[in-house]
Fold this protein.
Amino acid sequence: MDNAMFLIRKRAYNFSDIFSRKYAVLDTGFGLLLQNISYNPKGKGQCSVPSIDYVKKMERYAMGNFPKNFGGKWKDCNHLLWPYLLSNKYWILFHVDLENWKVTVYDNNQRFYQEADIYPHVVPCINIIPEIIENYVARDRVDLGKKRFQPLQYFRKSPCDIPQLKRFR
């Protein structure tokens, strides 16, 4: 999956006249990093304390230095995209829309996982992305205003709402 994301980033970089620079296509490591800091699968409600290494990695993502090849600076982006592997067997796509302050999860088959299964994986995103924005991007993004202090709104797209899948239904 990371190879596919790399090729998408490379193509967008090489053909910048076709692809918008307002998107940052991240790798699978970003989703894992979010989950490692605040998601507790046993439901004990405790969050781990971020290490210095974690903070530096998040800064590298926000500054566009990670992923290493063709990463996008969040100060220049309105959209963040990354794939996420659920239970080591099922891929979903996260899309953070910074302009509208929301995260959308694209799920091509909602029969596999119910909302209660997916939402715990979304919680780190809706809470940590605003912190990253505040710490590393806010001074360059006055357009975000006070909403940057609030959690992101969450939406889950059904297969009927995914444009590529509509024609197969």
